[in-house]
What does this fold into?
Amino acid sequence: MRTDTGEIIHLEDYRPTDFVLERVDLTFELDPRQTKVEARLIFHRREGVGLDMPLVLDGDELKMTGLLLDQEEIAPANYDAADRTLTIRHLPASAPFEITVVTEIDPQANTKLMGLYRTSDVYCTQCEAEGFRRITYFPDRPDVLAPYTVNIIADKEAAPLLLSNGNYLGGANMGDGRHFAAWFDPHPKPSYLFALVAGDLGVVEDSFTTLSGREVALKIYVEHGKEPYATYAMDALKRSMKWDEEAFGREYDLDIFMIVAVSDFNMGAMENKGLNVFNDKYVLADPNTATDADYANIEAIIAHEYFHNWTGNRITCRDWFQLCLKEGLTVYRDHEFSADQRSRAVKRIAEVRHLKAEQFPEDAGPLAHPVRPVKYREINNFYTTTVYEKGSEVTRMIATLLGADLFKKGMDLYFDRHDGQAVTIEDFLACFAEVSKRDLSQFSLWYHQAGTPLVTVSTSYDAGRQTFTLSLEQMVPPTPGQTAKEPMHIPLRIGLLLEDGTEMSLPSPAGAEMTGDVLHLTERKQTVTFEGIPSRPILSLNRGFSAPINLHFEQAPADRAHIARHESDLFARWQALNDLALPNLVAAAASARSGVPARCDAALVDALLTAARDDRLEPAFRAQALALPSESDIAREIGSNNNPDAIHAGRQQIMTAVAVAGREFFAELFDKMAATGPFSPDAASAGRRALRNTALSYLVYAENDPARAAAAFHSADNMTDLSQALTILAHRFPDAPETLQALSAFKARFAENALVIDKWFTIQATIPGAETLGRVRTLMADPLFAGSNPNRVRALIGTFAFSNPTGFNRADGDGYRFLAHQILDIDPRNPQLAARILTSMRSWRSLEEIRAEHARNALREIAAGATLSPDVGDIVERMLVG
Ligand code: B3K
Ligand code: ZN
It folds into this structure.
């Protein structure tokens, strides 16, 4: 199983290693340019493996300076060191033996940020998925688990701090200006969870006592001076540890848990055993520099990485095809955590918005793949919203199908049975099948069939017979490599509402299994009849988004308005408002395309304002209710032949119609939601800010004048309000003097704070309209733009491509050509970053022909690049096929 040469790896080819790794002992002599790594690996030949079978280890860009068997040099005839592998022959039959590999690496030159690299003078590692092989030759795959001892030697002044996984064994000065530290991790782990950090950092310390009384030291390491910014992360960590004990019965298992925040990181964070490494964006926060969204992300990601300790680390993946086993499950766990810490309904709405904005387009385009793929060329390209977010939804559906008690029993069985193992999705599902005695084989299609199922529904009510009938039909669209699909097991939560606003208790129907309020759709076509229904009910379908599907249900606007007003499930209320808004927005886009003014249904305006006025509802929900579907939601609803300019213009008109109709109310709301006390990042206070800023945004639409947003900018006392006001100014009045003044004031105030300057870039990169490409080019020449820092590249180039539909998709194709050049420029330095940003083009086929043609040409230009990484090569190839 080797993945880095660009060859395709297939699930069906999986087989265990020939040699069992018993123990790992690593010694690092750190040096920015010449780090020496000595790896002592104890192996034995697996029973039944022939004597002629060599030991094959993985490597990547390594310089080997020594190779020994039981401390004796291995003769060159007995090994081959190739680019990607080290093959050693004539090894003992069954007795354990020790292989020592000595390598020399150059952390300073490592711009891929995989393996051991340097960030702001700190040594740091990232090994998932296949970075460990860039440190030493090793069986670098997740089913090879061993305890690790790590010795780190470094210059004491440059690196007073020497960290690795597990518990600290001890350390001492070496008398030559260097010192060493030794760490031992008793929990067998795969190499992708290895971590080393060394440097000079500040620390925030705390402690946590586990349920069984274990005292755990908690440490968050940050750049000196940034300690005060880490207190929220520490608080989130302690809450996560407690929650995992209460909700899942999982305790922490080492004496110390460490988090290190670094500024150059390819992703959000990494769950290395006992030593999480984080993008500092997801650790550092204070009211002046972090928005409410930043606080929520920090809380969620701290929790996510911590939860991996059980779902991912103690029980890990047999192979990378099983990635969703740890990622989907852990996302589900962090979603539940945030739902418990904040508002469950608002959290669910945010999750579904994200799923629809990111995963649905992936599932509908050329990059679609199953939650558990069966082949890959570059595994890093499979850390996708399908594996993560759809993977979480599939876990949620298991909980929905089984109910809370059986789900918990299944999880407990999984933890008991598989602790310390590397397992598969089948192992996971078997636990739930066993405790529930349910056959989950049809359900398991959610892991294997790509594409978002479409469920078409119609209803009829027979007053004479007092029956209510649902006709349901499901279809899973074809996706790359999968043309014919089987019907899925789709759990649909439903409610029957009555005209007076109450809800019926559900009788058990004919034609489908029902458990509680969950209707089980299992056939391609299914007719379900409820008897004894005294009057026409209003059907609320897919409550809580119980299944990640597209729903085609022609429901009368009055019924949708009724749901928006009376549903007990707040998610369903929000969904109904969306369903009311979408046809208006689609029609408005069509009008804009043909140059006629759009119409906005009075019923929509009324429903939106009714929800927003309802003081019984929490402000965060009311803010969500007022937020119309995004431009990409509208594009997805239209499906093909999209014109982003028309979608944008149409949406602006609907926004204006709502704004004008609600102008006085929005002005009142803006005042009413003003802060009453000092800043607090809690969910309720964040909800008030969200509602206030939504009101501000509508007001500015109604007034068509920058004055109010400029005033909000100047009076803001926290980053949420400040950045919202700046966004409104820049996006609505990009050239107004108020905007230019605000942008330069913001830049001057925060020039020293990289994370805030990222926001300054992002706000400008997302200004709607074709001219923004010019701005982005200018911004790239700004001294503050740093092409080597992934956060900065994502903030400017990434957000332009992902989140600026009118700017990026400009009709002349310049946006795509710009991106193609950027991808070709970034790829040699940092292939993962380049490949990720390139996925912004995943929906190119749904554009109108002229733009699609430009997009295709840009993709071809990338494909013709002389030396593409497997990462970019794989994405561009899949994007062009078909
Ligand atoms: N497991 C890491 C992601 C690693 C990505 C490798 N390309 C973070 C997470 O999901 O928690
Ligand atoms: Zn994860």
Summary: The mean pLDDT is 97.
